[in-house]
Specification:
The protein is α/β, with parallel strands linked by helices. It has 2 domains: 132 residues, ATPase, nucleotide binding domain (Nucleotidyltransferase, domain 5, 2-Layer Sandwich); 108 residues, ATPase, nucleotide binding domain (Nucleotidyltransferase, domain 5). It has 8 helices and 15 strands. Strand 9 and strand 10 form a beta hairpin. The longest helix is centred in the last third of the chain and has 20 residues. It is globular and about 50 Å long. The N terminus is likely disordered.
């Protein structure tokens, strides 16, 4: 990574979400924003063309102040395989099968990298946040509407892990253990932690034997209410990058590409 960041010390990251699209230039040496982020609401009809137009609008706010060869990374809430979006969570279903990298590159009039949003968050935490300098297998989980998962082994991303969807007791795990399930069912933190999160994280650690869990998502800001209740052999810590993670991770991956 050091040689790459010496070549590219600045990159633009843009994070596409179901409600908002946000971007900022990132100092790759520190993971900090070089300018305040710009956020624009995701179009109500979040088709590829509509989202690409907003991504282009955000990029235009920063590109005049960036080096001409500054990499650009864009996240998408879906599985990304060889530049093609294979699933669509919280965005229009017309994204499924869309050549996202090509669509964004055409809109931006320059080559960019498109990545899964959870993967970008995992990279940000490993490069700059809660998992910095950790070797072995690091697993980031984002507890939100669903459960996003990123796997990194010795700092190398293993993309498109969908282990939020493993089956537990006959249910898709994220429908029972995500933060949205806690809210929907009005679960107390101790019930959510011991009855829902405990079986989920135990199953993951028994399958993969990770060296570290990092827990993100908005609910992680209240990590002291639930993480200490989990009985795991694997260390488990809250994420540090918060809502910067998608932008920073997309920028870092674009530079490393």
């Amino acid at each position: 990574m050091e040689a790459l960041t010496a070549m590219h010390q600045v990159a633009l990251g843009i994070d596409v979400g179901g409600s908002g699209i946000k971007g900022a230039p990132v100092d790759l040496r520190t993971g900090e924003f070089l300018q305040p982020r710009l956020k624009i609401a995701t179009p109500a009809k979040s088709t590829p063309d509509a989202v690409a137009a907003v991504v282009s609008q955000i990029a235009a706010e920063f590109t005049d102040d960036l080096p001409a060869d500054a990499p650009i990374g864009v996240t998408i809430p879906g599985v990304v395989q060889h530049g093609v979006v294979q699933t669509a969570a919280n965005i229009d279903k017309s994204w499924i099968g869309a050549a996202g990298t090509e669509i964004f590159s055409k809109a931006l009039k320059r080559t960019c990298l498109m990545v899964n949003d959870a993967d970008a968050a995992g990279v940000a935490e490993h490069r700059y946040g809660a998992a910095k300098d950790n070797q072995g297998l690091v697993i980031l989980t984002t507890l939100g509407t669903g459960i996003g998962v990123a796997l990194l082994h010795n700092g190398v991303l293993i993309p498109n892990c969908e282990m939020g969807h493993i089956e537990l007791d006959g249910f898709d795990a994220e429908t029972r253990a995500a933060a949205s399930a806690k809210e929907r069912e009005h679960l107390k933190y101790h019930v959510w932690a011991t009855k829902r999160l405990q079986p989920y994280y135990s199953a993951i650690e028994n399958l993969l034997w990770p060296d570290l869990f990092v827990v993100g998502g908005g609910v992680s800001r209240k990590h002291e209410k639930f993480l200490p209740l989990l009985e795991l052999r694997t260390p488990i810590v809250p994420a540090q990058m918060e809502n910067r993670a998608g932008i920073v991770g997309a920028a870092a991956l674009a530079a490393e590409a």
